[in-house]
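User: Could you go from structure to sequence for me? I need the amino acid at each position, not a summary. Structure tokens:
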């Protein structure tokens, strides 16, 4: 089985980090393929805004759907 884990915690040594590590180890030991996406390690910014777009569809009003 292929497993994808999204991990989002600012402290790698946290309980949340330990759970992610234990889960990866258990699944890998059981023969599963595991990938982890660590949002903090990727500097993921969950806040959307004009900085996410290279062009501007409507200059005076940010409407996410139009910009996308």
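Assistant: Here is the amino acid at each position, in order:
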């Amino acid at each position: 089985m292929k497993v994808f884990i999204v991990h989002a915690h600012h402290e790698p040594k946290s309980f949340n980090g330990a759970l992610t590590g234990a889960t990866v180890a258990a699944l890998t030991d059981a023969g599963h393929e595991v990938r982890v996406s660590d949002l903090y390690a990727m500097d993921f910014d969950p806040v959307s805004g004009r900085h996410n777009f290279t062009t501007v569809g409507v200059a005076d009003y940010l409407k996410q759907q139009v910009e996308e």
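One structural detail worth keeping in mind: The radius of gyration is 18 Å.
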